[in-house]
Fold this sequence. Notes:
By secondary structure, the chain is α+β, with helices and mostly antiparallel strands. Helices cover 16% and strands 37% of the residues. The chain is built from three helices and eight strands, in the order βαββαββββαβ. The protein has helices at residues 19-32, 79-86, 154-160, and strands spanning 2-10, 49-52, 61-70, 91-97, 106-116, 132-137, 140-149, 165-175. The strands form two sheets. Strands 2-3-1-4 form a four-stranded antiparallel β-sheet, covered by helices on one side. A hairpin with a 2-residue loop joins β6 (132-137) and β7 (140-149). The protein is elongated, with a radius of gyration of 18 Å. The two termini are 19 Å apart.
Amino acid sequence: MRKCRFVYSKTGKARYLSHLDTMEVFRRAFSRAEIALRYSEGFNPHPVISIVLPCPLGHESYCEVLDVTLADDFGFGGLCERLNNALPSGFRVHSAALPIRKPGDLQYLDLKLELFYDGRVPNLALLDFAGAAWERMDNGWSLTLTSLPVRLNPTQLAESFGADFWRVTRLRIRDTNGEEYR
């Protein structure tokens, strides 16, 4: 048995799948790819799969973390390709590796928040948000934030800027020491 940490993206129509539905998608993808998972013990066994800090319903993400326990000692070569061939559109696995840190070590989030305004100008006083890097886009603003607490709610942040529509792209997740979370 070997623990494995996957980094994947969830985009397009897949963003409308709930956390439990996403776990079911991965369970079926592992089955189709013929990658054996370890199952829990007990009366109703289920695969040992965990999504670390799942993205809220309706939001795209390019840096989601999935932990699984494999039943066999697989090499990581070709594992992502086999899984990507079995996943539906909107899901893509980018990397697979041994987990170095526990999920509880996850502390900081660096993200890019794209804010769109329907033909109006945002309150420019908000552009002085501490630690933010702003960039003008065709129909809105791009906001890059670093060292945010992981439990920050992006919905509340976007609403505080008065955006009509917004999108989050996670750039990097860091641990308590400021190192990239793996």
